[in-house]
């Protein structure tokens, strides 16, 4: 029997150990590593080359969404299932956009968790109809609008609106379900496209060109 190599990433030691114990009881699963943050998960993926990562969303140092983006960029064959609570489901949208194969709620029965791992390993996905609908809406929202002279994407315009409203990077990240690092990248792209050096200048130029009216 070829075992499915699984990496577990969660900052709560109790959850990490519980998952380890429960999944180790499955004959076809092999736990190859444990990580307590996204940075550790990335390094462990490079070291152990797992087939599957069970990725917590909220972790210190590097969150699960940012880690998913990097792992998928460097090791696209590695499959990732996000582990989330009811309150964090919106964050999963960003992870799915980076290539995660699905998500499961932390309250799931261990037997169903193991079954989910097998489904994804076989090429399936774990996305509910509700989440699929949200993904479609998200894609439509981030599609660049017509007559956009500076070439800002839909998401960059969303960030620009928050920027002009005076929100700090962390507040923008929370409002748009992004990591703070991703927000900084968007802001840098906005400055570059608008040919400005700061928030006030960006907001003024965006208002003058009508971008903030969209």
UniProtKB/TrEMBL annotation:
Domain Response regulatory: where?
A: 5-121
Task: Supply the Pfam families for this chain.
Answer: GerE, Response_reg
Where in the numbering of this chain does the HTH luxR-type domain appear?
A: 145-210
Write out the entry's keywords from A to Z. Answer: DNA-binding, Phosphoprotein, Transcription, Transcription regulation
What InterPro entries does its record include? CheY-like_superfamily (IPR011006), NreC/VraR/RcsB-like_REC (IPR058245), Sig_transdc_resp-reg_C-effctor (IPR016032), Sig_transdc_resp-reg_receiver (IPR001789), Tscrpt_reg_LuxR_C (IPR000792), WalR-like (IPR039420)
Q: Which residues carry this modification: 4-aspartylphosphate?
A: 56
User: Coiled-coil segments, which residues?
Assistant: none
Q: Which GO terms describe its biological process?
A: phosphorelay signal transduction system; regulation of DNA-templated transcription
* Protein's name in the database: Response regulator transcription factor
* Organism name: Paenibacillus faecis
């Amino acid at each position: 029997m070829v075992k499915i190599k699984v990496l577990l990433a969660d900052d709560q030691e109790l959850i990490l150990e519980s998952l380890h114990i429960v999944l180790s009881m499955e004959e076809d699963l092999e736990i190859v590593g444990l990580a307590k943050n996204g940075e550790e998960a990335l390094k462990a993926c490079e070291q152990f080359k797992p087939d599957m990562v069970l990725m917590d969303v909220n972790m210190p140092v590097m969150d699960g969404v940012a880690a998913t983006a990097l792992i998928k960029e460097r090791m696209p064959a590695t499959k990732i299932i996000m582990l989330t609570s009811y309150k964090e489901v919106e964050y999963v949208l960003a992870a799915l956009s980076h290539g995660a194969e699905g998500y499961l709620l932390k309250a799931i029965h261990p037997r169903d968790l193991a079954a989910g791992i097998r489904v994804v390993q076989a090429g399936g996905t774990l996305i509910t109809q509700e989440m699929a609908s949200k993904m479609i809406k998200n894609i439509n929202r981030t599609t660049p609008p017509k007559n956009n002279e500076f070439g800002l994407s839909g998401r960059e315009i969303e960030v620009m609106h928050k920027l002009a409203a005076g929100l700090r990077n962390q507040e923008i990240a929370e409002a748009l379900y992004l990591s703070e690092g991703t927000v900084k990248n968007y802001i840098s792209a906005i400055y570059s496209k608008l040919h400005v050096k700061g928030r006030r200048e960006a907001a003024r130029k965006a208002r003058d060109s009508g971008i903030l009216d969209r």
